[in-house]
């Protein structure tokens, strides 16, 4: 899945685009490494990683 698609899916949950972008960037920097990142429109992440990140946001939404 492209990172931009993941961003859009999380924004649809009701989070602000700025918060989502910052949180996804931080997660991917940690998992992939900042030096290995590509521009958001080009970057692809595994379905497993995308699902894990999306699940985290879903849990955050439920807890608020």
Notes on the structure:
The model has no long low-confidence stretch (mean pLDDT 96). α1 crosses α2 (17-31) and α1 runs parallel beside α3 (47-63). By secondary structure, this protein is mainly alpha-helical. The protein has helices spanning 3-12, 17-31, 47-63. Helix content is 66%, strand content 0%. It is built from three helices and no strands.
Defining key terms:
3 helices; 0% strand; 64 residues; 66% helix; mainly alpha
* Helix share bin: 55-70%
N-to-C terminal Cα separation, in Å?
27 Å
Count helical runs. Answer: 3
* Multimeric state: single chain
DSSP strand tally:
0
| C-alpha geometry | globular
Strand content of the residues, in percent? Answer: under 5%
Order of helices and strands: HHH
Radius of gyration: 11 Å
| Main sheet summary | none
User: Which regions have little confidence, pLDDT < 50, spanning 5+ residues?
Assistant: none
Short description:
By secondary structure, the protein is an all-alpha fold. It has helices spanning 3-12, 17-31, 47-63.
Secondary structure elements and pairings:
Layout: H1 3-12, H2 17-31, H3 47-63
